[in-house]
């Protein structure tokens, strides 16, 4: 009899247990319900970090397991944020507008309310009409569905076009980067219908909720933790089965898998679309905590940083992605927060706010060169796992194949 | 006593002169003495005309002196003189006719004639006829400029009169051209205007269009009550883009053909006004939360006679359809407007053709910029297969090198000549260092190369930001590259773009020469095709890779100097071009310089084309271009010019 899923993958259980402990600990220490040792803004930072961990898991699935270096997943992340942001903004403005119109002598008509909301939301881009994309903004259920559907559909169409014409490797990376750039540039326009470079703002206020931010932040923190747990579980389940074996095969030798009779394109498309949906959910949880979503979030650089997190954490292992995202984004915000004292080196003073990016860039080069298995590789050292000795050759001939030093026996 | 004496003498002189010569300037001035003293714009015309038409040689002088506020009137006798202010409130007076000084007088005994700006403009117009025949060609050209700046009907006659005597052929051509333009605008004879329009049709000058357009100014009016002679262009239906419903209805109201009706807001206000005890027209207020309910309540109020009548049948959109609206030319003559329309159509077609040509030039120059930015990449990525995300930073490094050189060498021409080889050297060294330290270890691992070079890219960008700050640094082009090559009023191209085009051609030649005619090129091609075989032939692949990568980086550095000449040099300079550069190489086809050329041409043309379709929105242009490229890759995944067979490598 086969072992149970958990028994075969003890790391999943360990991860979930640690996540639960962490969530519990933060809840106890936070202002909302506990002893107030952790400030509300730091709870938000932790919640946001968990969303970033979730999208890193998605990135690991597509890059680490399927070998597709997508430089466009932040586009899906941003789209998810936009979808939930539309409802939050519409609903909040509606409550405000209804409150002020109720002061009038006559009860407001439906048209008057919609027109007033339009003026409120789009006044900043010199318009007052609702564009077509806001058609479902009044319905939470529909917008929640769109959080998954819009990124999923975009990924489906883009992936179908790209995989069908056998665009692979670096070309695909550049193409996904171009997609992100196109989307960001499109959203930057004022007439895109999503408020141009102003983006959607005021998302931290839940409409109709009286609770203080210290409590709301914990709700989102829990939701983020839950989403991360479920996402991690889903990803672990996917990669543990036959499906996972096939996509790993595609990563290491796509041609061979195709000759074995698998429809490589369908597998790739499925993973690409699924990870886009996960990214959308992560974005929908991230931006209400950040409070604002604008096109700059979708800029190509964000997606490259995503790849950086996964690479530093160790690609091809799910906990590596989580560690990488959490470690790099927390350390980044620590360094760029200006709390580190300057370092005086003779005539040169290192101000970490300015020099952190350089350190990050160079450490990234070093990780790529000398430690392709990233931080996750430390666990292998600890457990005494060895790398396969292929005399310098990687696992497969393909560009996305796992490198000798990344793999474990 | 003296004053009286002088006055008497002057009077005597005046009389004798008037008798002797019949007309002096002074006599003309005296004839219009009152109007000149009054200085009113409305009445002064007669005086100016009289002076200008007197045919006296001093007429021009008098007008100039008058306009320059140098004309003084003597208190006692009211004679006019040219006055020159001396020290101590003394003014030396000169007689207009003789030009002789007639002595000094105290300011208190004089009246300075100060024409206001309206009068000065009239004098200026009168002066034009003198200036048009001035012996100095520069003055004549200035007079023509003045006419073109503010054309007027009364300038036509003096201009025509001055043409036959014009000695300078170039000025004569210009005069005739201006005469044609004035004729079509102001000649009283319609036939002459039509002839002038037909003579000049197809002319591309901005002045021609500026003359024709006012002839074709139209306004939209109600057809009722329009005189039969009106020059009607077309009938306009309300709701047409030119005539909104509200505007049409306002016109009807103004003509007394319709009553102002309360709009939804006004009706709402009236409802509120007539509400009492939570009821209006017997309907509870809280039920009025739809437009239909509000309309019903209002109709009830109207039936009770409490508010102005209103019904859906009397809505503006219904009422306006019962009337005709027409677009009428301000110009009364139909023949003239027809000729002008035809001429303008022809001009617009020719302008369109020229604009297309201009757009083509723009596209060509954009394509050469992309080609320049991408050519280094065509070597490192296209030939070697190394994906270098820091390529843009090499471009930036080249631009900053140019900036640093300009800090040391002030002469711009010399500094550019020094900067180009220096930028090559700097980026060549940086490229070699990067190849040795990083890329060498990652050959055949393109995804890892991408990420590692990206790490270098962000580090270099931040380093540049730390050193040079975030503000843009100037890299000034030499003076001889300023300005533009102007073909006509529509087509022009700046010299700097021509220079970049030439530079791109030079690089293309250089690339072809190195790859096809030199040892390095041969060895590079050998190493890219089969490194092990090349190695067994005695080629050192390590060295060749290093040199080739250095060459690609060095060319990026020179491109940086060129791009820095017209773009702002910032630390983000490179990242602005990196995606476009990769697109250029990928669209064109990897491994083939002609492909890169084709890719640059296609992307440049496409971007300019889309910008032309939607000129207000360059962001949208880039979006659509990228989408187009994504779709294009579907059909030609290996680019425009795809390598085939063994050279393709798979």
From TrEMBL, chain A:
Assigned keywords, A-Z: Cell membrane, Membrane, Transmembrane, Transmembrane helix
Keyword Protein biosynthesis appears in the UniProt entry: no
Membrane-spanning ranges: 71-90, 140-163, 170-188, 219-239, 266-286, 292-311, 318-335, 355-382
Subcellular location: Cell membrane
GO molecular function, one term: branched-chain amino acid transmembrane transporter activity
Keyword DNA damage set for record: no
Classification via InterPro entries: ABC_transp_permease, ABC_transptr_urea_perm_UrtC, LivM-like
Pfam families membership: BPD_transp_2 (PF02653)
Membrane protein topology class: Multi-pass membrane protein
GO CC annotations on file: plasma membrane
Protein's recorded name: Amino acid/amide ABC transporter membrane protein 2, HAAT family
Source organism of the structure: Ruegeria marina
UniProtKB/TrEMBL annotation, chain B:
Gene Ontology terms: cellular component: plasma membrane
Pfam families given in the database record: BPD_transp_2
GO terms classed as biological process: amino acid transport
Family classification: Belongs to the binding-protein-dependent transport system permease family. LivHM subfamily.
Alphabetical UniProt keywords: Amino-acid transport, Cell membrane, Membrane, Signal, Transmembrane, Transmembrane helix, Transport
UniProt xrefs under InterPro entries: ABC_transp_permease, ABC_UrtB_bac, BCAA_transport_permease
Range of residues in the leader sequence: 1-20
Principal localisation: membrane
Membrane topology: Multi-pass membrane protein
GO molecular function list: transmembrane transporter activity
Membrane-spanning residues: 363-387, 416-434, 495-515, 546-566, 578-606, 618-635
Phylogenetic placement of the source organism: Bacteria, Pseudomonadati, Pseudomonadota, Alphaproteobacteria, Rhodobacterales
Organism domain of life: Bacteria
CDD domains attached to this UniProt entry: TM_PBP1_LivH_like
UniProt entry tagged with the keyword Nuclease: no
Organism this protein belongs to: Ruegeria marina
Localization per record: Cell membrane
Listed name of the protein: Amino acid/amide ABC transporter membrane protein 1, HAAT family
């Amino acid at each position: 009899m086969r072992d149970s899923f958990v028994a075969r993958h003890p790391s999943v259980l360990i991860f979930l247990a640690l996540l639960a402990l962490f969530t519990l600990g933060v809840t106890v220490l936070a202002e909302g319900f506990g002893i107030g040792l952790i400030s509300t803004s730091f709870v938000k930072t932790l919640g946001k970090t968990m969303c970033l961990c979730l999208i890193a898991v998605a990135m690991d699935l597509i890059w680490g397991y399927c070998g597709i270096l997508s430089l466009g997943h932040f586009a899906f992340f941003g789209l998810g944020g936009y979808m939930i942001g539309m409802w939050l903004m519409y609903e909040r403005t509606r409550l405000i507008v209804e409150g002020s119109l109720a002061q009038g002598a006559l009860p407001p008509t439906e048209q008057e309310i919609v027109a007033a909301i339009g003026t409120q939301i789009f006044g900043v881009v010199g318009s007052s009409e609702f564009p077509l994309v806001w058609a479902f903004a009044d319905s939470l259920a529909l917008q929640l569905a769109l959080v998954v559907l819009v990124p999923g559909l975009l990924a489906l169409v883009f992936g179908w076009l790209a995989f069908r014409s056998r665009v692979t490797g670096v070309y695909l990376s550049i193409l996904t980067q171009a997609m992100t750039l196109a989307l960001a540039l499109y959203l930057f326009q004022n007439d895109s219908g999503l408020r141009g470079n102003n983006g959607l703002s005021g998302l931290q206020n839940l409409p109709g909720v009286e609770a203080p931010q210290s409590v709301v932040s914990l709700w989102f923190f829990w939701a983020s933790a839950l989403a991360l747990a479920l996402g991690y579980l889903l990803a672990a389940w996917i990669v543990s089965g036959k499906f996972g074996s096939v996509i790993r095969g595609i990563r290491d030798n796509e041609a061979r898998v195709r000759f074995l009779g698998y429809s490589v394109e369908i597998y790739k498309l499925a993973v690409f679309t699924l990870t886009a949906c996960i990214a959308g959910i992560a974005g929908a949880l991230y931006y209400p905590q950040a409070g604002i979503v604008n096109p700059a979030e979708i800029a190509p650089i964000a997606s490259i940083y995503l790849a950086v997190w996964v690479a530093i954490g160790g690609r091809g292992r799910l906990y590596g992605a989580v560690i990488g995202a959490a470690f790099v984004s927390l350390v980044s915000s620590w360094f760029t927060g200006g709390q580190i004292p300057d370092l005086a080196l003779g005539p040169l003073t290192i101000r970490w706010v300015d020099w952190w990016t350089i350190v990050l860039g160079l450490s990234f080069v070093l990780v790529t060169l000398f430690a392709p298995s990233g931080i996750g590789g430390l666990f292998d050292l600890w457990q005494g796992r060895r790398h396969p000795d292929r005399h310098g050759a990687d696992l497969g001939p393909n560009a996305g194949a796992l490198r000798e030093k990344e793999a474990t026996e | 006593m003296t004053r009286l004496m002088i006055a008497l003498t002057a009077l005597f002189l005046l009389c004798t002169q008037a008798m002797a010569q019949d007309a002096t300037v002074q006599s003309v001035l005296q004839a219009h003495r009152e109007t000149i003293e009054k200085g009113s714009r409305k009445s002064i015309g007669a005086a100016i005309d009289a002076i200008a038409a007197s045919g006296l040689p001093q007429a021009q002088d008098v007008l100039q002196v008058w306009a320059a506020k140098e004309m003084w009137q003597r208190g006692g006798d009211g004679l006019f003189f040219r006055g020159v202010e001396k020290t101590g409130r003394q003014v030396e007076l000169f007689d207009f006719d003789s030009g002789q000084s007639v002595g000094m007088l105290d300011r208190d005994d004089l009246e300075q004639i100060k024409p206001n700006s309206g009068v000065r403009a009239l004098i200026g117009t009168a002066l034009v006829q003198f200036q048009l025949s001035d012996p100095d060609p520069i003055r004549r050209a200035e007079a023509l400029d003045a006419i073109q700046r503010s054309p007027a009907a009364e300038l036509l006659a003096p201009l025509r009169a001055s043409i036959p005597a014009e000695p300078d052929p170039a000025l004569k051509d210009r005069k005739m051209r201006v005469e044609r333009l004035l004729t079509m605008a102001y000649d009283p004879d319609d036939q002459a205007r039509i002839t002038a329009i037909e003579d000049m049709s197809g002319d591309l000058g901005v002045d021609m269009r500026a003359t024709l357009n006012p002839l074709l100014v139209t306004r939209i009016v109600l057809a009722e009550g329009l005189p039969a002679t009106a020059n009607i262009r077309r009938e306009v239906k309300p709701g047409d883009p030119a005539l909104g419903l509200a505007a049409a209805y306002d016109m009807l109201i103004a003509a007394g053909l319709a009553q102002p009706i309360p709009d939804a807001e006004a009706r709402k206000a009236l409802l509120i006004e007539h509400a009492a005890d939570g009821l209006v027209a017997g309907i509870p207020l809280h039920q009025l939360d739809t437009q239909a309910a509000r309309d019903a309540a209002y109709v009830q109020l109207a039936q009770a006679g409490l508010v102005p009548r209103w019904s859906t049948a009397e809505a503006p959109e219904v009422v306006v359809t019962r009337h005709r609206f027409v677009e009428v030319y301000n110009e009364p003559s139909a023949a003239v407007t027809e000729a002008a329309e035809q001429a303008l159509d022809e001009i617009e077609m020719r302008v369109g053709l020229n604009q297309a040509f201009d757009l083509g030039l723009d596209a060509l120059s954009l394509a050469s910029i992309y080609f320049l930015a991408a050519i280094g990449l065509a070597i490192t990525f296209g030939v070697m297969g190394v994906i270098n995300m820091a390529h843009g930073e090499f471009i930036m490094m080249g631009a900053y090198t140019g900036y640093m050189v300009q800090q040391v060498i002030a002469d711009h021409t010399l500094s550019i000549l020094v900067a180009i080889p220096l930028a090559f050297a700097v980026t060549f060294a940086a490229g070699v260092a990067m190849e040795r330290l990083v890329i060498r270890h990652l050959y055949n691992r393109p995804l890892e190369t991408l990420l590692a070079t990206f790490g270098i890219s962000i580090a270099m960008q931040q380093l540049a930001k730390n050193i040079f700050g975030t503000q843009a640094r100037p890299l000034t082009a030499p003076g001889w590259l300023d300005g533009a090559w102007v073909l006509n009023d529509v087509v022009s191209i700046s010299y700097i773009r021509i220079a970049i085009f030439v530079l791109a051609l030079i690089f293309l030649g250089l690339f072809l020469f190195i790859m096809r005619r030199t040892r390095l090129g041969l060895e590079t091609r050998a190493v890219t095709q089969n490194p092990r075989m090349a190695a067994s032939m005695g080629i050192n692949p390590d060295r060749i890779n290093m040199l080739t990568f250095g060459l690609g980086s060095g060319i990026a550095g020179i491109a940086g100097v060129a791009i820095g000449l017209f773009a702002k040099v910032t630390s983000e300079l490179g990242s602005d071009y990196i995606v476009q550069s990769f697109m250029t190489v990928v669209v064109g086809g990897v491994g083939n310089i002609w492909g890169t050329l084709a890719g640059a041409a296609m992307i440049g043309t496409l971007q300019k084309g889309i910008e032309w379709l939607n000129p207000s929105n360059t962001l949208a242009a880039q979006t659509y271009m990228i989408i187009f490229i994504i779709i294009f890759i579907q059909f030609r995944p290996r680019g425009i010019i795809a390598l085939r067979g063994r050279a393709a490598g798979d």
